[in-house]
Each structure stands twice: as C-alpha cells, then as structure tokens.
Amino acid sequence: MNVKPLYKRAVVTGGAGFIGSHLTDLLLENGHSVTVVDNLCGGWMRNLKQAETDPNFRFVEADIRNKDSLKGLFDGVDWVFHLAALADIVPSIEKPRDYFETNVDGTFNVLEAAKKADVKRFLYAASSSCYGIAKQYPTPETAPMNPQYPYALTKYLGEQLVMHWAQVYQLPALSLRLFNVFGPRSRTTGVYGAVFGVFLAQKLRQKPFTVVGDGQQTRDFTFVKDVADAFYTAAQSTLSNDSMNVGSSGHYSVNRLVELLGGPITYIPKRPGEPDCTFADVAKIQDKLGWKSKCSFEEGVRHILDHIDGFRDAPLWEPDTIQEATKTWFQYLK
C-alpha cells in the first residue's frame, strides 16, 4: 500500500539569504510548501530564482523587527526555520544596537508569532561564534560560551530565547550551531567578510589571496547543502529544547584552501579575537538525529569554483582596503 507523504507548511525567515535559499529549495524539492519572510537586507531575490517556479512557494517582504509585519504569516504553519539575522563582525562592533534589535528583539518577535500560531517545530540558526576562542577541539556543545563581539553575543542571546520558549511554553524547538558554512550564493556584497567571497573575487581579478597570519589557522568548512539537510533532518525529529553543532567532521587550513583555489598569496596581520581553529564535535547530532555531512571540503571547493561567476560582483579587497575596513576590529578586540 502506498502511503501519502505528510507534506508540511513551512516558513523560512531570511529565506532569500545564503543558507535560507538552499533550505527553501530543499523543502520545495521534497514537496513541502514554503513561505519565505525576508526584508532583503542581506538576501537577494536572485537566490530564489528556482523557488519562484514552484507553485508551493510564496515570498513575503517583511522585517522581523516589526512584530505587526508578522501577523498571520504563521497561521497553519507546521515548521518555522528562523535564519533571519544580521551577520559580520566589524559592523556588529560599530552598530551593536542594530544587531540587538534584529538578532535578539527580532527573534523574540518570531518566537511570539510562532507560539501564538501553535507551530509544530521551531528551528533556530545559531552560530559557533558563541564559543569564542575555544579551549577544546573538537568543540562540544558543553564548551563554555565566550562570545568575542556583539554578533556572536546576539546570536547566543537569540538561542537562549529559543531554549527558554521551549522550556517554559513547550514550543518544540532545536538550535543548530553552524560552523563556517560555504557554497554557492554566499553573500559577497557590503562589508569585508567571509573568506570565500574575498578569495574568489581576488581570483577572478588575478590578484593575490590575502591570507591572514600564516594561513595555518583551520576552519570547520561545512558545505551549505549539508547545512540545509541538517535543518530538514532536525525538523522531522521530535527532539526539543536542545542545541547541536553542525560541522563537517573535519577542519582545514586556509593554506589548504588557497592550494585548492590556486593562486599567489600575500600575507596580512593576524587579527585579535579570532580562533586559530574551529572544529565542531558532531557526535551529538550524529547520535540524536543520525545526521552527518556528506560533501567533502575538496568536493565543495570544486563545486564553488564551478559557480565562480556568481562572485563577479563581489568587491575586490586588497591589503590597504582590508586594513581600513578592519581598524575597528583591532581597536576593540585586543
């Protein structure tokens, strides 16, 4: 006997962004209906080009800081994936109020709307930056919280709200702490940020890669489609009031990344407040959800090189402009 799949109604806040758009595509591919809520501050409609062809897709331009703009959007919804947030380190140091209003107050508004609508599952995109400079590798979820800058702090405060709503109001919720997500559609515009956007813009213009420090620092680079799959897997579980790391099961040096991308290097000063290593202990999510990343680092880099044209509009960062863009970093993160 054929069993009809139990399709769900989902809301993805920040769904026009990097991770959110890949998650939206995955949900639609599996037959679910998706409403993306985004203010297009850090997302782009071009990321939803594939989704817009699906009759089960809807886009709503709204700002999570405005609770009234969320009215009715969660009615009848099964799953809420809360990915909307302000990212990046330096802007969070310079404009902490903006980050608090979006990442904390905005999360409160989404939680309240989800609670009022009695949604069945709430999934929160947390950040591994909450660990700061960890003292244990791979880093487990029980490691001390030590956020180094307002972005990390506000993302952790958002997670605390989610866990509290799960505890007090029995909102079925999980928080996924993401480690160094990379892949196609990653944000390239605006402030100096993620290493892939910086390096690929430099490669396209045949400029040297600006490697911070000696390049031996390692990162738990996790491919974006694996991250989307982690959210989808978490949504199908019955677990609640818990936080889990999402990582690749490995960590890779910036020098190795440059080797895979291919090109000359220029070294720039190491920055305070940055860990020499990020490396997730993923035993918990493997044990509780049966999730494990599938895409190797090398395969992911090859895939992103196949989509390098998507980085042609990325700003070119060179040592002098990086120095200017990160002066606040050196001023405060001593």
Overview of this structure, please?
The structure is a single chain. 36% of the residues lie in helices and 16% in strands. Helix 4 (150-168) links the parallel strand 5 and strand 6. The protein has helices spanning 18-29, 89-94, 96-117, 150-168, 195-204, 224-235, 254-261, 283-289, 297-306, 319-325, 327-332; strands at residues 9-13, 33-38, 57-61, 79-82, 121-127, 173-178, 181-182, 209-212, 218-219, 222-223, 242-246, 252-253, 265-268. The chain contains 11 helices and 13 strands. It is of the alpha/beta class and 334 residues long. The longest helix has 22 residues, at 96-117. The mean pLDDT is 94. A 7-stranded parallel beta sheet has the order 3-2-1-4-5-6-11, with helices on both faces. Strands 7-10 form a two-stranded parallel ribbon. A two-stranded parallel ribbon has the order 8-13. It folds into 2 domains: 9-182 and 223-246, NAD(P)-binding Rossmann-like Domain (Rossmann fold), CATH 3.40.50; 195-219 and 251-279 and 295-328, UDP-galactose 4-epimerase, domain 1 (Alpha-Beta Complex).
